[in-house]
Amino acid sequence: MDTRKISDGISVSPQITPDDVSEIAKLGFRSIICNRPDGEGADQPTFDEVARAAVKAGLEARYLPIVSGKVSDRDADDFGQALDALPKPVFAYCRTGTRSATLWSLSQATRLGASEILRATKAAGYDMGGVVRRIVNGGKTPTDNGDARYDVVIVGGGAAGISVASSLQARRSGLEIAIIDPADIHYYQPGWTMVGGGVFDASTTAQTMGSLIPKGVHWIKAAVAAFEPKDDAIVLDGCRVVKYGRLIVCPGLKLDWHRIEGLVETLGRNGVTSNYRYDLAPYTWELVSSMREGEAVFTQPPMPIKCAGAPQKALYLSGDHWYRNGAINNINIGFYNAGGVLFGVKDYVPALEKYIDRYGAELNFFHNLVAIDGVAKKAWFDVVKPDSAVQRVEKSFDMIHVCPPQVAPDFIRVSPLADAAGWVDVDQSTLRHKTFANIWSLGDVMNAPNAKTAAAARKQAPVVAENVVADIDGKSPIAQYDGYGSCPLTVERGRIVLAEFGYGGALRPSFPKWLIDGTHPSRLAWLLKEKILPPIYWKAMLRGKEWMAKPEKISAN
């Protein structure tokens, strides 16, 4: 018997026999629903046989037969009513379990989000892609056939999405391009570290989305509910459908604040802050500038995260402020990193370690933040060292800067575009999807083994644009991405260790060593970060001006 749990209230299964019923009762189920019509298979017991066994086992049984492939809206309503009325948990079955899973999905469409339904059924081994439009439409069959269609659809209006739209326009002005994004505001997220360090004002890192969408590009202000790549279609919330010739997926990633117990309840107060949110970065500086003594904790979760250096950037700028105002000897700084090294590219570690020593920071590797009590000013870490049992340790704090765990967005993780870990599955060189040839991805959401930074997106956008245009012209990919990423590590106010690297940790410096040696702190690199990169972002990158970002051609060999 193949029992597959969908929720606490229901599990589904392929065909069962009367002999299975006693085991179903032992497993704790209180009701059975049969969704397979009698006589569908030669070796199939009738519902009456199963029902008699259910009565003997003290279970209720309900017969809701559904012809394979013909689940009507009324069927879903009847299933939902039965599910509400029957004692729980409920055991539902049909020939394979798919009809039962489909009925549950449609019956719950007004109660649960599409991503939650798709995630639950996918975990149970059932693909609900064929009824996703109905799920998004509240469980009902859509009647609107007025689907829009564009040559290129871009999901996500962040750094990657707007940049690739502009790069496409620069190469092929006549394309009908649409960007799908529900947000009103676009943020320059690399600036939030500087906000938390008292260097930038938060307002300088935000502009309206409408002012940045390239002229001639359609902006669809909506959220994506699901993908139907076999039909070249995207289903939006509300069940509107957008068709595409080529699709570019770059919605960023999801900050999973809820994964840390107690964090959401205390964020922005009780000394708990994070530069990973626009509204919290100013609170970081408020805490740092007012602190004169006590325990300052900085955390970093397991990879992958956006801008792997950002958690320690907060430490360095805070430590520098306390170093300069004379409070450093009264403040104990602790860096709690779920990983085992200070920075993933070894060439930059010696320079960073000198600043760790300057600020007297204690390094705690393999420490992953799992819970926090803001009122009590306590945090708990699971220590997961190689070949050792997990230990939980408690740490008191006066101030704690939290970097949240990060995952792909829900609607990506449950989609056919995702790999086993939930990220969009691409070729790491061409950034083309491994399964669907008319789909590309860039930015934080795709699974190439590179650093998730805005600088990476700046290099990826021209590569994707070049390859999409080549595909439109019937050609093979002509541009390749070398894994470039950049992390300007703000080790003190006025100096930066400019880490630039590609796949495998290979150094990819943009400047000659005599100008900026990225392995050593540099004043010129600080000037680049503070004065030059923001206008390059707003006025060049987002407008398709590929300064120092021309795509590398694929070798003809």
From TrEMBL:
Reported cofactor(s): FAD
A molecular-function term among this protein's GO annotations: FAD binding
UniProt KW Oxidoreductase keyword: yes
GO biological process, one term: sulfide oxidation, using sulfide:quinone oxidoreductase
Keywords for this protein: FAD, Flavoprotein, Oxidoreductase, Quinone, Transit peptide
Residue ranges occupied by any FAD/NAD(P)-binding domain in the UniProt entry: 150-265
A UniProt-annotated Pfam family: Pyr_redox_2
Alphabetical list of Gene3D superfamilies matching this protein: FAD/NAD(P)-binding domain, Protein tyrosine phosphatase superfamily
Limits of the Beta-lactamase hydrolase-like protein phosphatase-like domain: 2-110
Keyword Flavoprotein: yes
Protein name: NAD(FAD)-dependent dehydrogenase
Organism expressing this protein natively: Thalassospira profundimaris
